[in-house]
Write a structure and sequence with these properties.
The complex is a heterodimer of chains A (295) and B (444). Chain A is mainly α. Chain A contains eleven helices and two strands, in the order H-H-H-H-E-E-H-H-H-H-H-H-H. In chain A, a hairpin with a 2-residue loop joins strand 1 and strand 2. The longest helix of chain A has 32 residues. The radius of gyration of chain A is 19 Å and the shape is globular. In chain A, 53% of the residues are buried. Chain B has 444 residues and is α/β, with parallel strands linked by helices. Chain B has 15 helices and 16 strands. In chain B, strands 6, 7, 8, 9, 10, 11, 15 and 16 form an eight-stranded mixed β-sheet that branches. Chain B has a five-stranded parallel β-sheet with strand order 2-1-3-4-5, with helices on both faces. In chain B, strands 12-13-14 form a three-stranded antiparallel β-sheet, with helices on one face. The chains are: A mainly alpha (295), B alpha/beta (444). At the A-B interface, helix 1, helix 4, strand 2, helix 9 and helix 10 of A face helix 3, helix 9, helix 10 and helix 11 of B.
């Protein structure tokens, strides 16, 4: 492989890993704090995609500032949706068997799919063109949108790191994830922080959808396909760990892209082989820790 | 004047009383009369030998998930056909009722089909998007359910080419003729202009078969071409960058593809953004002629530096609306119902309902009463039914529906059409591209 091809393929992998990170960080965060495996996380990602599509293509027209507005709108709408889901639907189930939460988030996939169908129709929705120009690397091209996406993912990773290590809310959320009871005894309003955490996770899904939609094609049900690899990411990286989601996304992104070149038959299989090996030697994933008991 | 008027009013009044008296008398007599008399006195309502209860037709498509657009469109077209037929008196006076199941319920495809037939009384089933499902239902339908089953989408050659089925029919054009025509078209238009052929297709039977048929035919026609190793991508891949750069690095100038649906749109858009068409000069996609895919590609996204060709099972502008009004009406009514231009699944599922109607009516003419399953099967074999895609002939030897096969050049839509459209349509009659009955290029 010549060096130019290697460079563009590296960017292909990093772009793919960036989208994966944006999806899986929210999924991992919600699990880490609330111990809820949100099966509807992909559906929230889908809603984010449709919001950005609507703001940019149907309302404002394609430009860099409309993209920024659309991302903010996607985060805001999906995070608010997250608050409603957590307050109205999930909260009554906290002291019930975990199966009920799984069933509820599973049902939400179909409900959100149908709502999307009602609002936007069942047809494919897509950006007519990918925003921005392309950088030339020899005869190959890297769309500048790839680079923007990689920067957004890095920015989100740094913001999350800052939030969890430097802010009082972040520290309280981390405290909850270590021990819910102790946190409650120490006077932390766990109820409010659960809502905040779910909104944060949902908002990340919304952003992921918004960032992905210019390159992908939106359709009801797109979340189901996105969520499967994200599960692989958080199992590899460790459930509940943002650093794990970051490293897991890189592993999955790089292995998929380069396997597609070297031995394409194994392209998807390799990801699950890595996952199986990690589960055998580190059942909690690369950066996971022993899970606290659910309340 | 006044007198006439008055006497007429009197007459009307008298007649009214008389009719009311008769009605009461009839009602009382009807209720008190013994069963036998009632039977005799009941006038014949419909045609002789036609059951009173509605005719139930079941359909099964992907209604949810990423492929849910197929089912939504097919269901809308089926409802359209049923509304039209019921408005005009049903089939020989028998109205049609529908029942449906979701093919996306993967574990229960067979169970759900049985349920529609055995519990809900469906006398016909139409549908199936997945080729895998189409092959899976063969034993169920042929050995157990034994009712006419019309496949309207699943495209594997194996369904009709490997053996003659008794109860299973396919009304939609399938992949082999489309791929054979693609190879003939390359020879006709690009001989001497292209040297290296690449493939990108979905990583399952359809993608493999398509490439085998296209490359096999093309190799016979133009033996000097270089055929590269085909690339297959997992279904619902969202990110084609790595494949696009591989194709670019390979130096291919003709790219064949069997990607479909949203995948075809996603690949195409990313290929433009990554400059693939600086090196690829001809791009042929066997499934691009689908309005939903083209809508996703968007009107401004048709590049000038490459010849893009698309095909499909139906194209909403063919046969031309001015010479074939049935297609115009279908397009108008479908748009009225859904707001979209009909994709191929809409046309084929719509035609399946009319094929059922026509077969029942033909068989009824001969028998004078409602036909049984065997008689309906005989009527379907060799039937010609008019669909939006033109007349469709159901070949008796293999139960495959035959109609014109097309490829068209992709063009920016005019103000009339807000989506890119296939222009310069090249149309071959099925006789030129459809293999002899029960012969195939894939292994059975």
């Amino acid at each position: 492989m010549d060096i130019n091809l290697f460079i563009v393929q590296l960017f292909n992998a990093l772009f793919f890993a960036s989208i994966l990170f944006l999806i899986s960080s929210g999924l991992s965060l919600i699990y880490g704090i609330m111990k809820i495996l949100n099966l509807a996380h992909g559906a929230l990602y889908m809603v984010g995609a449709y919001i950005t599509f609507t703001v940019v293509i149907l309302w404002l027209g394609l430009s860099w500032y409309s993209m920024v507005i659309a991302y903010i709108a996607s985060i805001a709408v999906v995070a608010s949706l997250g608050i409603y889901i957590e307050r109205i639907l999930l909260k009554p189930l906290y002291n019930k068997p975990q199966d009920l939460q799984l069933l509820l988030t599973f049902a939400l996939i179909f409900i959100l799919d149908d709502i999307v169908k009602m609002i936007w129709g069942a047809q494919y929705r897509a950006f007519p063109t990918i925003p921005g120009w392309s950088l030339s690397v020899g005869e190959y091209q890297i769309p500048v949108y790839f680079i923007a996406t990689i920067l957004i993912a890095l920015g989100v990773a740094l913001l999350l790191h800052w939030f969890f290590t430097k802010t009082i809310y972040g520290k309280m959320i981390r405290a909850i994830s270590y021990s819910l009871e102790t946190s409650a005894i120490l006077g932390i309003n766990t109820d409010k922080l659960f809502a905040l955490s779910f909104a944060l996770g949902a908002g990340l899904a919304g952003l992921a959808g918004g960032v992905a939609v210019p390159l992908y094609t939106a359709s009801p049900g797109m979340g189901g396909d996105a969520i499967v690899l994200s599960f692989a990411v958080i199992v590899i990286g460790g459930m509940g760990s943002i650093l794990g989601a970051f490293v897991g996304s890189l592993i999955v992104g790089l292995s998929r892209v380069f396997m597609a070149i070297i031995y394409p038959v194994f392209e998807i299989a390799l990801i699950y082989i890595i996952m199986a090996i990690i589960l055998m030697f580190r059942p909690t994933g690369l950066f996971g820790r022993e899970m606290r008991e659910r309340r | 004047m006044t007198q006439v008027s008055d006497s007429r009013r009197e007459w009307v009044k008298l007649a009214g009383v008389g009719v009311a008296g008769l009605a009461v008398g009839y009602g009382v007599g009807f209720l008190t009369a013994p069963e036998r008399v009632r039977e005799v006195e009941t006038p014949v309502e419909g045609l002789p030998g036609v059951p009173d209860e509605p005719l139930k037709i079941g359909y099964i498509y992907f209604m949810t998930g990423t492929l849910g657009t197929y089912g939504t469109n097919a269901a809308a077209a089926i409802e359209l056909a049923v509304e039209e037929i019921n408005r005009n008196g049903g089939i020989l006076g028998r109205t049609i009722e529908l029942t449906s199941k979701d093919e996306a319920d993967r574990e229960r495809v067979l169970d759900n089909i049985s349920k529609m037939v055995q519990d809900e009384g469906a006398e016909f089933v139409v549908g199936l998007d997945s080729s895998g499902d189409a092959l899976k239902v063969i034993p169920l339908v042929e050995d157990e359910l034994q009712i006419p089953f019309i496949v309207t989408h699943a495209a594997t050659p194996k369904l009709t080419e490997c053996a003659k089925r008794r109860f299973i029919f396919r009304i939609s054009m399938y992949e082999e003729p489309i791929d054979i025509m693609a190879a003939q078209l390359v020879k006709e238009l690009y001989e001497g202009d292209v040297t290296t052929v690449a493939n990108i297709g979905p990583d399952y039977a359809y993608g493999y078969d398509s490439w085998a048929i296209f490359s096999g035919t093309l190799q016979d026609l133009m033996p000097d071409l270089e055929f590269l190793d085909p690339i297959y991508t997992p279904l619902f891949t969202t990110d084609y960058g790595t494949y696009i750069d591989q194709i670019k690095a390979s130096g291919a100038d003709l790219l064949f593809s069997s990607l479909w649906g949203g995948d075809a749109a996603t690949f195409f858009k990313q290929a433009i953004a990554k400059g693939l068409f600086d090196s690829v000069k001809v791009y042929m996609n066997a499934m691009l002629g689908a309005t939903d895919t083209l809508e996703a590609i968007g009107n401004d996204n048709v590049p000038d530096n490459v010849d893009v060709w698309g095909s499909g099972r139906y194209w909403f502008l063919y046969p031309p609306h001015d010479v074939y009004p049935l297609n115009r009406l279908f397009v108008e009514n479908f748009r009225g119902k859904t707001g979209a231009y009909p994709p191929y699944v809409a046309a084929t599922s719509y035609t399946a309902i009319y094929a059922i109607k026509k077969a029942i009516e033909s068989a009824y003419v001969m028998k004078g009463s409602w036909p049984d399953v065997d008689e309906i099967i005989s009527a379907l074999e060799g039937l010609t039914v008019s669909g939006p895609m033109g007349p469709v002939y159901i070949r008796p030897e293999d139960h495959q529906g035959l109609y014109d096969v097309f490829w068209g050049r992709l063009r920016r839509g005019s103000p009339t059409y807000p989506i890119p459209i296939l222009d310069e349509l090249v149309v071959y009659p099925p006789g030129k591209v459809v293999p002899e009955p029960l012969t195939t290029m894939v292994s059975c």
